[in-house]
Specification:
Elements (H helix, E strand, L loop, with lengths): L2 E10 L2 E9 L11 E4 L9 H4 L1 H13 L3 E3 L2 E3 H17 L8 E2 L2 E3 L8 E5 L4 H9 L6 E6 L10 H15 L6 E6 L1 H4 L2 H8 L7 H14 L1 H7 L1 E7 L14 H4 L3 E2 L2 E6 L5 H14 L21 H12 L14 H11 L7 H14 L7 H12 L13 H10 L4 H25 L1
Parallel strand pairs: 1-4, 4-6, 5-7, 8-9, 8-11, 9-10, 11-13
Antiparallel strand pairs: 1-2, 2-3, 3-10, 12-13
Helix pairs in contact: 2-3, 2-8, 4-11, 7-16, 12-14, 13-15
Length: 436
């Protein structure tokens, strides 16, 4: 039986480290590095039954994909019970989830001293800011995580500093606490090897399509225990009616819990445009400035030129706001730029972006245009076949060959070849972008 084993759990001040071993072929999904997390407050008094939750949250989906177990010396009883529901939800979404068990000889319930606080995973984008507005009466602690979109590499230090400053600038005038978590959760797992095995089954990457709902909430367990956070909110990306394989959904996040804390997938009943409506109402009544950060290309403000920036700016206009007041340079002339970017193939949508533009189109049908340029753009959007703008192409042949080989070649060989292939692939992509 393939299995992961958590062999050691060590907390030192604000740092957590766990060592893991594997049997039955699961070792190829581990990088060889210990699992590490740094919090911004001491976790020495957090029981081991809770300290083990972050590493289990990363390991379990990988083990389940191979029909394997995860072994730990101790675990929180509530968390252990919640895993079965999370596993079943992932299995309903992904056919490759084969099942498996968490095996821990000691299952404990160690209630924290208090549970009267709340927390919110926060980036400053539309979704997490809308969740703040929904729960602002609770004054939630804003929790930001480094390790997924911002890597733990020194090259990303500036990005992390920028994000921290932005979150703090949002929190300070609203008298909110912040919490910052840094982890190597994706470096601890061999993410390229996971992609080699499962990319053909998922629309995105492993963590986005499978792991991040359980992974990010579980990462917060020691923080929540030490801080008295009884409710932890995860802002929804999608909404009812969008059936996509995505690792964070109500039937995943809503089942995760541990001693003193329950997790909530928040705002799933609202479309993205309805979340922007919520922000518009808040912007009118709030004495504080509201700047959003959604850009795919930069973190220190919005570039105002990528697909996501334009999509957000148009959504803000439809909600009755001036995008320039909330972090986006936008004028009537940009409507032509957006249309031409689609028609010339500069942007190719994923399935989720297709749903978001459909949401904009639905609202535009109910909205009186404010200018000739807006009227022309909305008429075009109403007539265009959004499905034709969705990228349905397969990965390049070189990607498919490498991944197929990785499923059978020795792990050491693959780890030597992958960086060379990845570097060459990056160079080819940049050359292609230069030609365009």
């Amino acid at each position: 039986m393939p299995a992961f084993s958590v062999d050691a759990i060590q907390a030192d001040g604000t740092d957590l480290e766990c060592t893991v071993s594997a049997t039955g072929g699961l070792s190829r999904f581990l990088s060889g590095d210990p699992f590490q997390v740094s919090y911004d407050r001491p976790i020495d008094d957090v029981p081991r039954s809770v300290l083990v939750i972050p590493v289990l949250s990363q390991l379990c989906p990988v083990a389940w994909a191979r029909g394997g177990d995860v072994r730990a010396p101790v675990v929180d009883q509530r968390f252990a019970r919640s895993l079965a529901a999370v596993r079943d939800a992932l299995g309903d979404m992904h056919s490759f989830i084969a099942g498996g068990q968490l095996r821990a000889p000691r299952r404990r319930t160690d209630p924290p001293a208090r549970t009267d606080g709340s927390g919110l995973l926060f980036t400053g984008g539309v979704d997490s800011t809308a969740s703040y507005v929904r729960h602002r009466d609770e004054a939630p602690t804003l929790v930001s995580i480094r390790g997924w979109t911002i890597t733990p590499d020194a090259a990303d230090d500036h990005k992390w500093d920028v994000l921290r400053a932005r979150v703090e600038s949002f929190a300070e005038p609203r008298d909110l606490e912040t919490a910052f978590v840094e982890s190597n959760m994706l470096r601890f797992l061999d993410h390229p090897m996971l992609l080699a095995h499962y990319k053909r089954h998922v629309d995105g990457a492993w963590y986005s399509s499978v792991g991040h709902g359980l992974g990010l909430t579980g990462l917060c367990a020691p923080l929540a225990y030490a801080s008295g956070i009884g409710d932890l909110y995860v802002a929804a990306t999608h909404w009812e009616g969008i059936d996509l394989a995505w690792g964070s959904r109500p039937d995943i996040d809503g089942h995760v819990r541990w001693a003193g804390t329950e997790c909530h997938h928040d705002g799933y009943e609202l479309t993205r445009q309805e979340r922007l409506d919520l922000l518009a109402a808040y912007a009118v009544e709030s004495p504080h400035e509201l700047e959003l950060q959604t850009c795919n290309d930069r973190l220190d403000g919005n570039c105002g030129r990528c697909e996501k920036c334009y999509r957000t700016a148009i959504g803000l206009r439809l909600a009755g706001l001036d995008p320039t007041d909330h972090g986006y340079r936008f004028s009537d002339a940009d409507y032509r730029t957006v249309r031409e970017s689609f028609e010339r193939g500069h942007w190719v949508l994923g399935i989720d972006e297709r749903h978001m533009w459909a949401d904009i189109r639905d609202r535009a049908r109910e909205t009186t245009p404010r200018s000739r340029a807006e009227r022309a753009f909305f008429a075009w959007l109403d007539s265009v076949d959004l499905d034709e703008l969705v990228d349905s192409s397969r990965p390049p042949l070189s990607h498919r060959v490498l991944r197929a080989g990785a499923r059978t070649m020795p792990t050491g060989v693959y780890r030597r070849l992958y960086p060379l292939w990845s570097e060459a692939s990056t160079i080819r992509r940049r050359l292609a972008q230069g030609r365009n």
